[in-house]
Design brief:
Blueprint lengths: L44 H31 L6 H30 L1
Length: 112
Amino acid sequence: MKVNKLGFLSILALLGFMGFTVSIPFFGFFGFAQYIRYFFVTPDELFQQNVRKAASYGFFSGVWVTGLAIVIHFLFPAILPVNIVLASCYVVSMICFTISLVVLEINEQREI
């Protein structure tokens, strides 16, 4: 039996426990716990194709938002700090990847 490697993203949910001791924004990492379900999904060809589509949506949306954030930072440096510019790529990429993967899975379930 093949292990679905997408399930390993759920390990990032362990960083959420740092929210109790370090800083409250770490609680956001508990969102990665939803990837645990992918350990129980058999990675067939359609699933891999959906992951590729979702990954490309996530990547290009992150590139676009980071470029936009860099331009806004250079025009108005007081409005958008550098750490927010750098974090925007990761946050937007993961949100777009997750949403597009869920939408693709729902569409796959409708076809069956």
